[in-house]
Amino acid sequence: MGMKAKAHHHHYNANGGGGGGGNGSESSSSTSPSPPPSPRRHSTVPHCRRKLRTKPISIVFSFLLLRRFLRLLVVLPLLYVSGLLMCVGPFSGLVGHTPLPGSVYRSHEMFQLLWPHIQADNSTPIELSSVWRFRRKLKEQKPCPPSASGLQLDSPGLTGYLIVEVNGGLNQQRSAICNAVALAGLLNAVLVIPRFEFHNVWRDTSTFTDIYDEDHFIATLEGHVKVVKELPEMLMDKFDHNISNIPTLRVQAWAPVRYYTGEVYPVLQKQGVIRIAPFANRLAMNVPPPIQHLRCLTNYEALKFSSPISNLANKLVERMTEMSSRTSGKYVAVHLRFEEDMVAFSCCLYDGGEAENVAMNSIRQKGWGDKFKRKGRVTLPGLNRIDGKCPLTPLEVGMMLRGMGFDNSTSIYLASGKIYWAEKHLAPLLKLFPYLHTKESLATPDELAPFEGYSSRLAALDYTVCLFSEFFVTTQGGNFPHFLMGHRRFSYGGHAKTIIPDKRKLVVLLQNMSISWKDFKLEMEAMLTESDRKGKIIPRVKKFTRKSSVYTYPLPECSCLQKHNNTQIVPSAHS
């Protein structure tokens, strides 16, 4: 009954038309070299006879070349994969090859070797308040652009109602909400409070109102985009009070402005209401400045956590600050992605032996079926590790931070789900940093009870505590750290104040059994300096050429909303 848009018949590139991600990721392809041509033969056949035989000979010759080329295309990749399997796979030990640097998890052995030296280290720890040395000169603040309603359209009035269904975890939903507001402004439409889809991975039944302050959201956007809680009764009657009867558009990822104005707008005008499902990453990053401003306004002012979340989140920030009195109230927040499902999905090997391998295979089968057993799929745990794709363990994070100069008096907040084999993996981290805290340790069971079973609400608590930390440490990527880094850049004068480990370099160092603690520290200090340098980077944005995410790099477009006279944000203002 639903009406399909033409979107699924079109494909777009990342810079004007979709298909590519908004974070500027690139794809690459490799081609095998063509075989050299065969040497030319000198024929004794008379010229007149050669003329008659030229065509069939050339066809046969071309066919032979094609066969040889196809064989190479098949054989060369097989040889390459075989070599990798020998070097980084399970056969490396059998054939006597030395594993490639960084391909094997030996961090636990490294810790045992270096622990006496770590304990004996009496060098002066870093001052938490003086680590971030790179500063960005703040430019003169420009006024925010005027209302963007109907910017690209001829219609002077509202064109209809926009319904979107958002999916994913907390920050994927947040991204979709910001994009929905921007799209409503582009189409001059009335936005209905976004609907949250239930997903088997997150298993969270929360609605918009459970996560965000709905009234604040509507009031903040007034004058920019009209937002309503529900469709008018008249429209609901038209579609028999069944939302699935409303024309549903399936839009290609990262669709550009011209698609919405050319394809979606006419449907909205005709029907008076449209529904876009799903609505994750359905609007290109390259949009006019007034539309981009709507994203900024939504992300940093309109989206305020609901009272139950913000009240407890603020308490956790206050308690974490009190627990950090040894360092003037400053603490380090670590986003640790070492949950069971993340370890399984990464296909990486740690130190659990065959029992771990069996357990991870079982989890993969349960969560993703035969995805990892499909024909032609090759899993190379060693190569994944070399490429920086393996989640860092609590031990690896702890050694990195101690190497950077954080001593055992530093307070650490761990933002994470249920850690895989927590008792084993958290033990060395607690040795390195005894002042380790989580939302479970800071809140009482009664305070956390209303949040149990709601992953997005729990993530909102972690998000707030991480936002107000002096240091944020990201270990695995994803929407959570990307949004946080952007929020911190917006709030701290353009600096993300984030430690981003060079995992490709780190895994090599953590496999080097001959490295001294002194040399390891030098490498970690250089990594911290590099994080400081990268923390202040602002991408160059000229007109509609933005490739990076405005949620990770909010400047310069969002700068008109910054309060430069108060770069130290306070919890009550943003949570």
Automatic annotation (TrEMBL):
<keyword id="KW-1133">Transmembrane helix</keyword>
<dbReference type="GO" id="GO:0006004">
    <property type="term" value="P:fucose metabolic process"/>
</dbReference>
<dbReference type="InterPro" id="IPR024709">
    <property type="entry name" value="FucosylTrfase_pln"/>
</dbReference>
<keyword id="KW-0119">Carbohydrate metabolism</keyword>
<feature type="compositionally biased region" description="Basic residues">
    <location>
        <begin position="39"/>
        <end position="48"/>
    </location>
</feature>
<keyword id="KW-0472">Membrane</keyword>
<keyword id="KW-0294">Fucose metabolism</keyword>
<protein>
    <recommendedName>
        <fullName>O-fucosyltransferase family protein</fullName>
    </recommendedName>
</protein>
<feature type="compositionally biased region" description="Basic residues">
    <location>
        <begin position="1"/>
        <end position="12"/>
    </location>
</feature>
<keyword id="KW-0328">Glycosyltransferase</keyword>
<feature type="transmembrane region" description="Helical">
    <location>
        <begin position="69"/>
        <end position="91"/>
    </location>
</feature>
<keyword id="KW-0808">Transferase</keyword>
<keyword id="KW-0812">Transmembrane</keyword>
<comment type="similarity">
    <text>Belongs to the glycosyltransferase GT106 family.</text>
</comment>
<feature type="compositionally biased region" description="Gly residues">
    <location>
        <begin position="15"/>
        <end position="24"/>
    </location>
</feature>
<dbReference type="Pfam" id="PF10250">
    <property type="entry name" value="O-FucT"/>
</dbReference>
<feature type="region of interest" description="Disordered">
    <location>
        <begin position="1"/>
        <end position="48"/>
    </location>
</feature>
<dbReference type="InterPro" id="IPR019378">
    <property type="entry name" value="GDP-Fuc_O-FucTrfase"/>
</dbReference>
<dbReference type="GO" id="GO:0016757">
    <property type="term" value="F:glycosyltransferase activity"/>
</dbReference>
